[in-house]
Automatic annotation (TrEMBL):
It holds the Pfam family DUF4194. This is DUF4194 domain-containing protein. It comes from the Bacteria.
């Protein structure tokens, strides 16, 4: 049975819904654009793919956009076999490559492992961060000279090229600062950020410290 004429929406043709005017559609961002996300949401999605982390304190507007649109952003990343991790306590969001032994998952995110010097610097930074937090401090800081002196003790004792070791350590510090694990507060003095806990878990730190102790015990 058809509905009575009096119950139809005003201006609607029989059996049809009132068409939406073209000027009411979202504007294309570029020629041929078929995307459905708002431009701010697209920017957050691109940033997550480009950068290793999205930090709430450094990017408050994008952080709000992420939280308000987390479900759709997660869905778009899942389409690429990428998982989104949002750490509300630390104010950190980052992505992880989905890997599965049961299905053939294409790998989008390539591993960019830390070299030896970078790993040793990470171990020292994570140790300092854990120690300071354990004493109730809200932040942890290191000086480049103290960092160099400590990390150089981890190097091969047979390698007597001090200048090369110092250069490797300073290059490592530059990379970690660029990734947001260190924040330079003054010349040669850095604050260790909570990202260090994400990059190097307590379990991994224990494993690396054990390896360093064993290595030192067998060294001549």
């Amino acid at each position: 049975m058809g509905e009575p004429d009096g119950d139809r929406p005003e201006g609607a043709a029989a059996g049809f819904i009132e068409p939406v005017p073209m000027e009411g559609d979202p504007a294309e961002l570029f020629a041929g654009d078929t995307g459905t996300l708002d431009v701010d949401v697209r920017r957050v999605l691109v940033r997550l793919l480009q950068r290793r982390f999205l930090l709430a304190d450094k990017n408050p507007a994008q952080w709000r956009t992420l939280l308000e649109n987390q479900q759709i952003i997660e869905s778009r990343l899942h389409d690429l076999f990428v998982r989104l991790v949002v750490d509300h306590d630390r104010g950190i969001a980052y992505k992880q490559q989905v890997r599965s032994a049961e299905s053939d998952v294409p790998i989008l995110l390539k591993d960019d492992p830390y070299n030896r010097a970078e790993t040793l610097v990470l171990v020292h930074l994570r140790t300092v961060f854990q120690r300071e937090r354990g004493t109730g401090e809200t932040s942890a800081r290191v000086d480049i000279e103290e960092l160099e002196q400590t990390v150089l003790t981890y190097f091969d004792p047979e390698d007597h090229n001090l200048a090369r070791g110092q250069r490797d350590i300073r290059n490592a510090v530059q990379r970690l600062a660029a990734e947001g694990l260190l924040a330079e507060e003054s010349a040669g003095r850095y604050r260790i950020t909570p990202l260090i806990e994400v990059v190097l878990s307590a379990e991994k730190l224990t494993e690396l410290n054990r390896w360093l102790r064993e290595r030192n015990e067998v060294a001549p």
